[in-house]
Automatic annotation (TrEMBL):
Its main location: other. GO terms for cellular component: cell envelope. Keywords: Cell membrane, Membrane, Transmembrane, Transmembrane helix. GO terms for biological process: cAMP biosynthetic process; intracellular signal transduction. It is found in: Cell envelope. The chain crosses the membrane at residues 317-335, 342-361, 367-385. It comes from the Bacteria. Belongs to the adenylyl cyclase class-3 family. Residues 431-563 form the Guanylate cyclase domain. The lineage of its organism: Bacteria, Pseudomonadati, Pseudomonadota, Alphaproteobacteria, Rhodospirillales. GO terms for molecular function: adenylate cyclase activity. InterPro entries: A/G_cyclase, Adenylyl/Guanylyl_Cyclase_3/4, CHASE2, Nucleotide_cyclase. This is Adenylate/guanylate cyclase domain-containing protein.
Length: 687
């Protein structure tokens, strides 16, 4: 738990989702949610059941449009003619005539009495009032003129947008505090109630119209189910409407023409409104720009159909956010690699959006979407930002910790591969190298301190480059000595081979530097190099005052002992049997089987010469003779061993190892080692 308390990305993720719950409940970011609603509704229109989505058959729009005014040859429509249209609609059997034309000022031509009489005679009529809202709060209702208001029922329109930035109308709100006032029901609700012959009432979040119960959301909002329109039509009035010009004069209609008009309006809610361009009575909705009278028609249709679109309950919405949060936390805690984590987060966000879209299209369930998706996106960015900071700090730490030991290329590889690096102590198989300058005291005599510094730099720099070239790590410089190792901080399965390659290259590099040293007036340098492979402890070690990345253990000590023995065998490079066994294809000359100081178990020592294919036949033959003589020597067959070593010494008089064994043979002839001798030579001193 203490570890999680340090995961600020986890804490912020939890906070984001917890904030998303009240945010979606109180609709703090309605604009973004409206965009998802628009997208989902477009898919609903494309893939939903067209018959189910169609506008209710009980609703028809009679519109005053551009062709009407062209034939009418006047603007605006006279109130007496509105009365005529209302009378004719009622005569043709309209059950409810809802007039979406605001008439809150008396007629300049004293036409209100005629319109009032027509409304009163028609009966079941409703006039539009205007609800005035400020910051989403109701202020007052502007009713029709007193004369008209007394002749007909009225109700307010003015659907409010969810967003303060963009006006998008998608829902109809019922204000409980207004329902008891005159005209305090929304126009669409009042029209539906007149059609059903009941008085509307509100029970909790349910609109009750007699036997029809229409569920609203927790804010008493009804989602308007905008219907699909036939191909080639842009407005509802083009498919579910008829021009008002048809109803201006029906006196001269024959029986067929009258029957045709009755088919349109008989026993229906007829909504009379203006769809002319000059009225500018159109609004942005999830399906695009829609005339106000059409929004009313769609609202009435949604009510009569029992609210095909229904918001899920606040508890369900909150639970969905919490479930997504838990999945997000599981992904964060279990997936450490960015690619799988990113793909899973995309799948989570896409899956949630697909779920909410599917519910909207097929079940008419409106699940808040943008808030949860936004929480997913922001929390993912926070998680990745934290991961970025960790990786950046890790890279800086790697560069700081290992930059002084290993080449920049290896540091870059560590950062690129993301290979696990242990800075603390751990045990692993590695290869260690010790290198020391032969006769350094003699070489340094007579050199001024500054010149000695230049000499050491001329020696240590190329040696370091060689070690780095073969992926080695510099442990430390000890005056003229170098300690390095392979296999850490990065795991290297070929650590022994790389160490051998580096050691061989160091020997040849020193030969190449000989002429440069002589030219500078320095004595040529010879080095002794010892390698050993085994289990070592590696990590940052030291005290509270100073730490160093180094290796410790018996295998390290053996490497140091081997380096100190190189001079006795007259070789520049010597390795243990463990390093020899770890490098297939390595051609070496076995030098001895010894017990070094402090060790009871014997170890074979080898002089590596190169790899398969790199050694000439003559050298291979000498190595074979040498190993044969060595076998005779260990069998105490002194004459045969001596003869072979003498032959080899004649061919290579500068090679010390032959003299070493010839001297031992002479010694054992005088003082035989005994029948139980194991062929091991014990070194009493460290060097």
């Amino acid at each position: 738990m203490s570890g999680l308390s340090k995961r600020y990305d986890i804490i912020l993720t939890i906070l984001l989702f917890l904030v998303a719950i009240p945010a979606q409940h109180f609709e703090w970011f309605a604009l973004l949610e409206d965009q998802t609603l628009s997208f989902r509704h477009q898919l609903r229109l494309a893939y939903g059941d067209a018959k189910t989505l169609a506008v209710a058959s009980e609703v028809v729009v009679v519109n005053v449009d551009e062709p009407f005014f062209k034939a009418y040859k006047s603007f605006p429509l006279r109130r007496t003619d509105i009365g005529t249209i209302v009378t004719n609609l009622k005569e043709l059997g309209a059950k409810v005539v809802a007039v979406d034309m605001l008439m809150d000022f008396p007629s300049s031509y004293n036409e209100d009495p005629a319109l009032a009489k027509a409304l009163k005679d028609a009966g079941n009529t409703i006039l539009v009032a205007q609800g005035e809202f400020r910051d989403g709060k109701f202020v007052k209702i502007n009713y029709p003129t007193e004369m008209l208001d007394q002749a007909s029922a009225s109700a307010y329109t003015n659907i409010q947008s969810n967003s303060k930035l963009v006006t998008t109308l998608s829902r109809l709100k019922v204000y409980p505090e207004l329902t008891g006032e005159k005209g305090g029901w929304p126009f669409a609700v009042r029209a539906a109630a007149l059609f059903l012959g009941v008085d509307p009432r509100l029970e909790g979040n349910t609109l009750v119209l007699g036997g029809l119960r229409v569920p609203l959301d927790h804010n008493n909002l009804l989602y308007i189910d905008f219907p699909p329109l036939p191909t080639g039509t842009r407005f509802l009035s083009q498919s579910a409407g008829i021009g008002a010009l048809e109803f201006l004069d029906i006196a001269g209609l024959n029986e067929n023409e009258r029957s045709e008009l009755e088919f349109w309006v008989k026993d229906k809610i007829v909504i009379l409104g203006d769809t002319s361009e000059v009225s500018h009575d159109w609004f942005d909705t999830p399906v695009g720009m829609v005339y106000g009278v059409e929004i009313i028609a769609d609202s009435v249709s949604s009510i009569l159909k029992g609210a095909p679109l229904r918001a899920v309950g606040p508890g369900t919405a909150a639970a969905s956010a919490l479930v997504v949060m838990m999945i997000m936390l599981v992904l964060t805690l279990t997936l450490t690699k960015p690619m799988p984590r990113g793909l899973c987060v995309i799948a989570l966000g896409g899956g949630f959006f697909a779920l909410s879209t599917g519910l909207y299209i097929k079940a008419g369930q409106v699940l808040p979407t943008s808030y949860v998706v936004l929480a997913i996106i922001i929390s993912y960015l926070l998680i990745e930002f934290r991961q970025y900071l960790i990786e950046r700090n890790q890279k800086q730490q790697i560069a700081k910790t290992f930059g002084q030991y290993i080449p920049p290329e290896l540091v870059a590889e560590m950062n690129k591969t993301g290979q696990s690096v242990q800075v603390g102590g751990e045990s692993r198989e590695m290869t260690v190298l010790f290198s020391d300058v032969r006769g350094f005291t003699t070489i340094s005599e007579g050199l001024a301190p500054q010149e000695l510094t230049v000499l050491m730099n001329a020696f240590l720099s190329p040696m370091t480059h060689v070690i780095h070239d073969y992926r080695g790590t510099i442990d430390k410089y000890m005056g003229d000595a170098i300690m390095a190792f392979w296999g850490a901080p990065l795991h290297d399965p070929d650590h022994a081979k790389h160490a051998i390659q580096a050691a061989l290259k160091m020997v040849t590099t020193m030969e190449d530097l000989k002429e440069d040293f002589i030219r500078r007036g320095w004595k040529p340098i010879k080095v002794g190099i010892g390698l050993n492979t085994g289990i070592m402890n590696v990590g940052n070690m030291g005290s509270d005052f100073r730490m160093a990345y180094t290796v410790l253990g018996d295998a390290v000590n053996l490497g140091s002992r081997i380096e100190s023995l190189t001079k006795q065998y007259g070789v520049n490079l010597m390795i243990s049997e463990f390093t020899q066994a770890a490098v297939p294809g390595l051609i070496s000359r076995e030098l001895d089987m010894v017990r070094v100081k402090g060790k009871n178990e014997p170890v074979r020592l080898y002089e590596p010469l190169g790899f398969d294919g790199e050694i000439d036949n003559e050298t291979l033959a000498r190595i074979s003779h040498h190993h044969g003589a060595l076998a005779l020597f260990r069998e105490q067959r002194w004459d045969g061993a001596s003869a072979t070593f003498q032959m080899l010494a004649a061919e290579e008089p500068e090679r010390v190892i032959y003299k070493v064994y010839l001297d031992r043979i002479e010694h054992f002839r005088e003082e035989p080692p005994g029948a139980d001798w194991d062929g091991v030579y014990t070194h009493k001193e460290k060097s």
